[in-house]
Write a structure and sequence with these properties.
Blueprint (H helix, E strand, L loop, with lengths): L5 H14 L7 H8 L3 H18 L2 E6 L5 E6 L3 H15 L14 H4 L2 H14 L7 E5 L4 H11 L3 E4 L10 E7 L6 E7 L8 E9 L3 H11 L4 E11 L10 E10 L4 E6 L12
Parallel strand pairs: 3-4, 3-7, 7-8, 8-9
Antiparallel strand pairs: 1-2, 5-6, 9-10
GO molecular function: DNA binding
Organism: Melghirimyces algeriensis
Protein name: Purine operon repressor, PurR
Amino acid sequence: MKKWKRSSRLVQMTWEFIQHPHRLFSLGFFSERYQAAKSSVSEDLAIIHDVFQNEGWGKLETVPGAAGGVRYIPGMNRLATQHLIHHLCQQLADPGRILPGGYLYLSDLLGDTTIVRKMGHTLASVFSNDGVDAVVTVETKGIPLAYATASHLGVPVAIVRRDSRITEGSVVTINTVSGSSKRLGSLSLSRRSLKEGARALIIDDFMKAGGTIRGMVDLLHEFRAEVVGVGVMADALVEDRLVQHYISLTTVTEVDAEKRKIQVVPGNILDRGGFQNG
């Protein structure tokens, strides 16, 4: 095997970490792959860690012991988060988003891969130390955000269906009641899509009263799963919310269809500590 130059090693190692967040790499893995001494690899890792920290992208975490190594923990600094949220607030406040019934059009934002990737990075950073085993979402527009968040956590996605499908195999189904309209419905999840006892992170695009998310929490209890958190792109100000503990990027405080007015403010994510400096 060829001996890699340091510049090439740094690029390749950085790519490996970004592509495989939370995956544990041993020094021996890099030493053998790049035909470099472990001392040189350690120096490379220190450089990459400093860049990640200085740019607010996260950090490299060292795990001691014979079975230890180093892994990339995604992070986001407060300034970058503020810029993203400011952009989202501007986009969501466009009165052209108002649909009949006071609903908001969100598909363009959730179809923008650049914005979705940044939102996923931000949400993943909030829950990066919670030992997430899987991201769970419902079959709506929030699927792209769920996958983006999961990609930064290095975990799979489980999709809750509103009706069972033969291609899902054996499923668990529960009945639900919408928090706002009080409509009856059902939610189903394939038994093969989530391991029993998993630590699950629920991700969704928009939350009103929280009936759907409450239903997902109840469904996950059937898998003996632990819900470690809930993250949404936007929430609305409502009374009698069914979900109290969650992270939102933005909050829609007013939708006036007659006056064609939408008011959006930053969500509660900025109230949560743990951001990197910058």
